[in-house]
Amino acid sequence: MNKKHNLFPYIRRIAFSNSLDTCITLFILLAVFLLSTITIKWLLFGADWAVVIQNYPLYAFGLFPADQRWRPALWLLLLISLTIITLVGPRWRWLRKLLPITWIGVIPLGIVLLSGGLGLLPVASRYWGGVTLTIFLTTCSSLLAFPLGIILAIGRQSDLPLIKFFSSIYIEALRAVPLIAILFFGQLLIPLFFPIGVEINRVIRAVLAFTLFVSAYVAEDIRGGFQSIPKSQEEAAKALGLSKLQITQFVILPQALIIALPALTNQAIGLLQNTSLMAILGLVELLGISRSILANPLFIGRYMEVYVWLAGIYWLICTVMALLASHLEQKVTIEKLTIKN
Amino acid sequence: MTSVIRTRKLVKTFSKGLRALDEISMEVKKKEVLVVMGPSGSGKSTLIRTFNGLETFDSGELEIVGIPLHSDHNERNVREIRKRVGMVFQQFNLFPHLSILENITLAPIKVQKQNRIEAEEHAMSLLSQMGIITQARKYPSQLSGGEQQRVAIARALALKPELLLFDEPTSALDPERVGEVLDAIRSLAEKGMTMVVVTHEVGFAKEVADKVLFMDSGKVIETSTPEVFFTNAKHERSRKFLNQIGE
Ligand SMILES: Nc1ncnc2c1ncn2[C@@H]1O[C@H](COP(=O)(O)OP(=O)(O)OP(=O)(O)O)[C@@H](O)[C@H]1O
Ligand SMILES: [Mg+2]
Asked: Would you call B139 an interface residue with chain A, using a CB distance cutoff of 8 Å?
């Protein structure tokens, strides 16, 4: 069905070929029509969007002090620019070399900008929230889980039995525990391991819990990549006199990462959605802040509006992530990895 | 003349008790080209892979470019040998995520610690020697099989090896691409490169080989000059083999 004049016969063939087909088609059309008119009518006339419009800053920054909102905004802006620069892939070698360091710097910069210090007004972590917190949790956990996952994946392939054993135990244990349990562990148990009086920021504890969880899955994705690389690659590298470490670093790992890339970007998108679990544990990230807005007597009963809006934001962020991911995949894969070996 | 490869009673047994190498004693001298022939499963690949430590062996003596290698497979010696011995595989085994230039410069930069500019200049001269200088910025999957194999030869040459090993370098190629790769190997022979080539290309062997080594069931059946081997082989089994491949 690639020519236009084939369209009508095609539709007739797939949707109206006999009377039963015709009935089903008409029924579906009617249902779709009714549903969409009801939805559109509600969106335009039924809903009261004040609960969204009056609370934009809350959705964006949570309870962050109004005169300090430029700080999370600046961090988000830097993050977006860095993402774009990375995806465009600069031509200059010096800039490409700088990128990994800059990405590592994203976490401390975010912590300083959000929590203050170094001349900035201190802001306690309970005031961090909204999209900012959702993205902070996702970004920091992904950035930490990625190298940890690589190390675990390499550990699992190691010739040293002890390293292999502990990597496997770690991966299997974390994959056997539900995420919510690990998050509870992070919020309730981690503090017990520290002396009384030392308080670790709740957000940082959440980041650590997510990192522990996601790294196990990242490790498995990368191991899948390792296994799909033919043995002949390692032999060719050995024959050139490369050391074990060099073979992993320059030959095996880069290819494994390219192969694992779609799975890894899925992990990131899944992680973003999973950060909403923190609402149960009292963080006011996107879902949490929405729930506290709903608790405000001014907006009582406006569930539909808030949750539709919330779904829209999650959908938007996830879609952008998915688009960026597929762009990255194409860029990395196209000519390089049609493995002929 | 100094010998580049010397083995004495080399034995290699795979798990099932089958001797892939059965007391192999042989020698390759400097600037010599040795062609290894033999039926499938006779141990040709196993033999040349022991020459750069890709296979271990059970007993016997092996000395490559003056470095002794024992059945304990000393890691230091193995790496020293690999730095001085190049290998070209049947399936090319280029690194698909690296450009042609990066494939060739990887080992010089990482193993020999050459600086990038110097390594790239050398790589470009090798590519022009192989007649594929225009492909330097492409990736392996964008090249034809013959071109890929010539890149693999350039990659092996980049470490300025004293010995080159070829395991059926033309067996995975389309027939019309075989010539260009054999030409490249021939020109290396003319420059005096010491080489061991496993191949079924009789024409090539007649023209380029100084000696032909014929193997069967892990044993060296005979080692002769190509004139003798192809017209008047000493051994019954060699003659039978030549008959089978149509000579
Ligand atoms: N990794 C291995 N494990 C067990 N047996 C092996 C292994 N590699 C090779 N062999 C066996 O050793 C013998 C020699 O194999 P080798 O690959 O050296 O033969 P070849 O002469 O190169 O054959 P071909 O012409 O098919 O490449 C064969 O019987 C083979 O089955
Ligand atoms: Mg073979």
From this structure: yes
pTM: 0.87
Cβ neighbors of B202 (< 8 A, separation 6 or more) are B230, B245, B247
Residue B120: predicted pLDDT: 96
Fill in the amino acid letter for A200. I
The residue range of the domain holding B167 is 3-94+162-244
Q: Is A269 on the interface with B (CB under 8 A)?
A: no
Number of separate domains in chain B:
1
Residues 6+ apart with CB under 8 A from A184: A281
Q: Is residue B142 part of a domain?
A: no
Residues 6+ apart with CB under 8 A from B190: none
Spatial neighbors of B158 by CB under 8 A, at least 6 apart, are B104, B105, B107, B108, B119, B122, B123, B126
Least confident of A107-111, A330-334, B232-236: A330-334
A50-333 adopts what CATH topology? Answer: MetI-like fold (1.10.3720)
- Binding pocket residue ranges, ligand 1, CB within 6 Å: B 14, 18, 20, 38, 40-46
Nearest CA in chain B to A234: B93
Burial A13-31 (b: 16+ CB within 10 A, else e): eeeeeeeeeeeeeeeeeee
What does the pLDDT read at residue A15?
79
Structure tokens at B70: 């024992």
Distance CA B124, CA B244 (A): 42
Asked whether residue B34 is domain-assigned, the answer is: yes
**CB pair distance less than 8 Å for B91 and A341:** yes
* b (16+ CB within 10 A) / e for B179-213: bbbbebbeebbeeebbbbbbbebbebbbebbbbbb
C-alpha span between B105 and B120 (Å, rounded): 6
Q: How does pLDDT run across A3-58, given as a tens digit for each residue?
A: 556 778 888 888 788 888 889 989 999 999 999 999 999 888 888 888 888 888 88
Q: Tell me the average pLDDT of chain B.
A: 93
User: CATH code at B25?
Assistant: 3.40.50.300
Quote the tokens at residue A211. 């990192």
pLDDT band at A86 (very low <50, low <70, confident <90, very high): confident
Burial of A181 (0-12, 13-18, 19+ CB in 10 A): exposed
* Closest alpha carbon to B215 in B189, B196, B231: B196
Nearest Cα residue in chain A from B156: A240
The ipTM, to two decimals, is 0.92
